[in-house]
Amino acid sequence: MLKINWDEYKEFKKHRQANGDNFTTLLEFVKSYYNMVNPREMFEVFKADGLAEMMLEKRDIKDAEDLENFLFKKNHA
């Protein structure tokens, strides 16, 4: 299974405009660095990582459908 490269995430974050939300930055990173857009795949990767899992819990994202809804809201806000 894919593991999040947090060192690369930190580098990615340095070159991003500060939006104040680390989870949104993580989503952008996963899309860009791993070329991953499927919410189910993203959810599985996040659930396997302690820090990313805490980010999911903070936003009350319990499954891939919740993540998909979160992504949809972000893209249409």
Question: How would you summarize what this structure contains?
Answer:
This protein has 77 residues and is an all-alpha fold. The chain has helices at residues 6-14, 22-33, 39-47, 50-58, 64-75. Helix content is 66%, strand content 0%.
Describe the overall structure.
With 77 residues, the chain is mainly alpha-helical. The protein is 66% helix and 0% strand. It contains 5 helices and no strands. It has helices at residues 6-14, 22-33, 39-47, 50-58, 64-75. α1 packs across α2 (22-33) and α3 (39-47) packs across α5. The protein is globular, with a radius of gyration of 12 Å. It starts with 5 loop residues before the first helix and ends with a helix. The mean pLDDT is 92.
Helix and strand arrangement:
Layout: H1 6-14, H2 22-33, H3 39-47, H4 50-58, H5 64-75
Helix pairs in contact: 1-2, 3-5
Q: What are the salient characteristics of this protein?
A:
0% strand, 77 residues, 66% helix, mainly alpha, globular, single chain
